[in-house]
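Final report, Chapter 2: Outcomes

The project's central promise was a pipeline that accepts a single protein chain and returns its three-dimensional structure in a standardized token representation, suitable for archiving and comparison. That pipeline is now operational. To close this chapter, we reproduce one record exactly as it appears in the project archive, with the input sequence first and the structure output second.
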Amino acid sequence: MTGAQRLIVASNRLPVTLRRGHEGDWKMERSSGGLVTALEPVLREQEGTWIGWPGVGADELPDVEAVLERESGSLGYRVRGVGLTAQEEKDFYLGFSNQVVWPLFHDFQTYCNFDPTFWRAYREVNRRFAKVIADESAAGDFIWVHDYHLMSVAEELWQAGEGDRKTGFFLHIPFPPLDLFLKLPWRFTLLRSLLHYDLIGFQTGRDRRNFLECLRTLAPGVELEGEGRVVRARVGKRTVRVGAFPISIDFDEFADEAASNAVSERVARLWSEFPGRQIILGVDRLDYSKGIPHKLHGFRLALHRYPSLQERVSLVQLVVPSREDIPEYHAIRTEIERLVGRISGEFTRPGWVPIHYKYGQWDRPELIAHYRAARVSLVTSLKDGMNLVAKEFSAASLEADGVLILSEYAGATAQLQKDALLVNPYDVEEVAEAIHQACNMKEGERRKRMGRIRDRLRKEDIFWWVDTFLKAARDEDLGEWNELEVYQPPAPPGFFDAVRD
């Protein structure tokens, strides 16, 4: 394949999903989300290709490419499917990706299942992705690979003799510290695989620091150079750039939809359901990394410790189903529902229920209506690559009077640390205190904090993120944004003054 340089995107899932219609024919459903919104214009401009799994098994639809070709003509760019059998979905996706990498990289190593079968399936699927990428690309094209499912793709390209492709990798989840990474049986192999990329991007300076520490310890022959947001790792004759690039949202799109008549009507309905009360909002995918039980314990303590909050606030907790085939997810849902029942039984009064717990799916207007209606967003992640809920809530806070309570273990903390109320979700007293502070914050302070958050997110949106990553891939100067932000919990003033000499 020849022509000018193009962008080839590879991710576990395509931006479209194939589903069987009522009459047995296959139809394409387009996906939404910030990543799709940001990358599609670049793919159209460069006549690029998006490669991924189309949501249907290879054994269920053998002629997947013909269906994708027929259905995707309106996209303006090519999509190529990577077929997976049902067993590969189980071992590669539910197995290695979500029972090894996901828990380990989120500090839940006791949930890991280090089954060698999972690792072999992971390598085989990455090899298959690499083959499709090689067929679809040419020397000089830029291959942008996304997330933890595909960490070995660049090495597989190299082993197949296609190492002349320029490749970038972005990890959407955290990267673990050395002590955790060492627990991975395939630690050296995976680290070597990542070093085959030309650019490796992480969400935060903390994640990049963890990766570089693993390099220093496990690959002492690699030389690190430079400072700022992007540093260089010398690997033999090659240079690998390593940077931090916090992903974001389409701020204007969220703000515009929050102001729409359809959403405004839903907001009015929500306010009528909670007359005279502040809505504290939690929006989380069902996952042990999201700290939902910790949030509930903190809310319960706040009601105990600050009785003035009773009948004045209500916690609306939305939980989106996820990975229901994995046992740990059943256990976390049971724990959440038990805690909700306990708190409701303890505090419910006539005309007031402290928690409104909802488990299911919500369309985008309904979700944005909840964001706009809430006065407080409560994010208590135990570990998060970024946490876009914090940014979506802020974009939808049109009156700029919402308060963001944010876990210091969320990636968004590096950007928003000056204006969010930061909490250690393991510290139930700190969570309770933050809830009390947020619900009693003066309007002027609310507006100043949220105004500054919104100004930053408007500037550093999803399109800025794409542009910045691609500039780094071309080794261009990132200008004023080259300074790296890392969050470190500050000690209280004078805390160490009393240490003995």
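Archive annotation: The longest strand covers residues 278-285.
This record, like all others produced under the grant, will remain available to the consortium after the project formally closes.
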